[in-house]
Fold:
Amino acid sequence: MGEGVLGDAEPGRGGTHDARHALVECGRSRRGVGGVPVVTGPTSGWSPEQGPRPPRPWWAQIVGQWPLALVLVGVASGVLWAGLGHWKRGTFVIGAAFALGTVLRAVLPNERVGLLGVRTRLVDVACLGVLALGIIILVLVVPPQV
Structure:
């Protein structure tokens, strides 16, 4: 089991485990040079003849996740500010970061939201909004220390 070439059916299995094969089966590919399927759609610009794609550098992965990175920077700065003794201001910044995450999740399309979108848009916006609103209300209701 597993001794075959990528794209060959394994014994006891119903078909191949190659993503290109699945695209061929659902009709989202075309035949390239020598009858090799060329995948179209979200992977255009790349063909199976080129082999596996190399991993993107770490900075490109972070840039691709900019909505989540922006929210995490806001939360980290709020935690740092709260740790320096200004807990109300720091907590407000944390709530504002979650509010920013709520707006980003509501406005950005699913292709651009990255890891900020975990569930459906409605559930993500509701959860982030309740969290942001709760933190901000808590900061405003608690009286300052004298």
Residues 87-107 form the longest helix (21 residues). The mean pLDDT is 79. Residues 40 and 122 are 31 Å apart (CA to CA). Residues 19-53 form one domain.
